[in-house]
Amino acid sequence: xxRPGGTFYVAAENLGQAPVRVEVDTSNVxxxxxxxxxxxxxxxxxxxVFAFRHCVGEELAGTLRVRSREERRQxxxxxxxxxxxxxxxxxxxxxxxxxxxxxxxxxxxxPGVQRQRVRIWNDSEEERTFSPGTPAGYVVQQVSGDxxxxxxxxxxxxxxxxxxxxxxxxxxxxREWRILPEVPPLPLFRLERIARTPGADAVVAIDFGTRNxxxxxxxxxxxxxxxxxxxxxxxxxxxxxxxxxxxMVVHKKGxxxxxxxxxxxxxxxxxxxxxAEFAVDNLKTYLRAGEEPFQKHGEQWTCAILLERYFEKxxxxxxTYFRTADPAVPLQRTALxxxxxxxxxxLDWHSGDVNGQRYEQALLRALxxxxxxxxxxxxxxxxxxxxxxxxxxxxxxxxxxxxxAIAVVDAGGGTTDVAVARVRIAEGRVHLEVIGSYALxxxxxNPARIALQ
Length: 453
Hints:
There is one protein chain. With 453 residues, this protein is α+β, with helices and mostly antiparallel strands. 18% of the residues lie in helices and 36% in strands. The strands form 8 sheets. Strands 18, 19, 20, 21, 25 and 26 form a 6-stranded mixed β-sheet that branches. Helix 3 (283-289) packs across helix 5 (354-369). The longest helix has 23 residues, at 303-325. The chain is elongated, with a radius of gyration of 35 Å. The two termini are 45 Å apart.
């Protein structure tokens, strides 16, 4: 076992009395260099050592070929007897860095919590002395052992970090903890309790996409025991599905209507009655562009009407979801205080937004047909909604990135949008402060590329 850049040895021991010639062939050795000559003569009952130094950053691999002349020749014309052997380097030598491993990426004190525990491992092959630093505004205590104790290899130390009450004149508490000089500092966060207003009972989020539509329900109040505040459900067009394919198969005379996965399957497998049915896809793109390609099948088949038919199916599924949320007391969507968030692309936002406004109005009319008044609807740019979701779902990853800039890329079936944001920690929560949202064009003048630079 060696540390990175360390030295290991191959020893040739002569068990006889006569001198022996020994050789090492390093042509197949990877990740180590021989320190010295490849040939040596070993006197009787002596040992010759060949030193190898590990090359930092490289993996030890390959084979080392060793040769030794086993005995003297009785006559000069006789062939000398040699012994050959191959040593697989990775099988006998292992590189392991000596380091301390911390079991947390950050230490977070939720509202009302004054003490947290952190575990540190001695990831090495030797016993090491551990003496932690103490951040301002805190008290560090070891759960067991002396304040500066020797930690055996592979063992851990448990520390307790406790918030110290802030007295007048005391400096502000540190925002990071330098446990050991050779270990990156650990971010420290103290979250404050936030008063929350009741607001809506639940939020229904709908991301109408070119290829697929996503629907989520987030409960903001605990009306159902199995769905506490903060609980999120994914709604699909059928059991086990997490999406609604944005597709329909429409009968020209107003007969049967296939939608979602069923319509997508029929379209993909070419199971349409061409004389009586037509496929509806790319509806989002046509709505934004103001095109009416489906009126060739009948003047009544405008994109706005088809959007209403599609959303009626989504809301039928939502009604079933609320009705079965509590088996004992079925809930009615119309009796709940719901807020609806719909996403829209950025593409039209920076070009007068004529197409974007037309697209929003078409969505509002479709929702109104489903019993949703306009005042309950909020539109969000698609990459901004994605950034909000990332901030909620990946708080642990973002905790150590306070102040850093990130880009959220929403690559969809019809448009690709980018939101440039900065990680902020305020009022006890991690959030992404959105700097700007842009449609992605791979040219030098794109504002997203300029902002990222």
